[in-house]
Amino acid sequence: MDFFEITSKHINTLNNSEKELYNYIIRNMEEVKRSTIRELAAKCYVSPATIIRFLRKIGFSGYSDFNAIIKYTNLNIEENTNPFVVSQEKYRIEYLKNIYESVRVLDEEKVDKIIELLKEKPRIVVMARGLNKSVGHYFEYIFSGLGFEVVFPEDHFFRKMLLNGIRNSDLVFFLTYGGEDAELIRDIEQLNIKSKATVVSITSANNNPVQNMSHINLYVFADYIQFNEIDMTSRISMISIIELIAYKYMEKIIE
């Protein structure tokens, strides 16, 4: 069993402080697996005793047990970066697990904040490049259908012009799986300097610049796939999160 299989049944029992610890571990697995319990406690600004209580609450007997599982989980991720070195049956399981984990760990408090912002009927701006543009088109279709003004500047120069006219009331979504796109990072920097618009990002769970520069970040899981030097990593988990936000908005409007 890996980290997510062990902890899945305990997520709903966590309080806000424990969710922060859980999110830190997910986003910094490579760093956490090399840390002692005291180092992890210092990074999370808690005591080692708090870490032990937290780990027991999410299904581990202690820090050694937790650390061994974290290393095993990371090894699995690295081995499955190219899905075609494993059987298609096994990859299908991993593919479904990524979608399941993305939906299961979705932070409801963050989604509720987004819903409250959507109730104000803001203009929605979607920023995406590369393969993420396909997700941007889907986003534009869904939220336009919900009655929102959606602006999706696909071109570099269109994005640049739009950033000069960003409104403080805009809700700006950055869709970038890796979260390290240099152009989008510059866009967020410019946006935060020029306006008070709310930035929402959907990225991978690993710690990344776009995530850290956003007011609200939602993260997803997927196995990184590159073929002929082209990014072909699945965006299905990202689409799932977008749909869940849309469906919850519809539910609130009906209420």
From TrEMBL:
Gene3D superfamilies: Glucose-6-phosphate isomerase like protein, domain 1, Winged helix-like DNA-binding domain superfamily/Winged helix DNA-binding domain. Residues 114-255 form the SIS domain. Keywords: DNA-binding, Transcription, Transcription regulation. Residues 1-77 form the HTH rpiR-type domain. Transmembrane segments: none annotated. It comes from the Bacteria. PANTHER family: GLUCOKINASE, MURR_RPIR FAMILY TRANSCRIPTIONAL REGULATOR. This is HTH-type transcriptional regulator MurR. It comes from Neobacillus rhizosphaerae. The gene is murR.
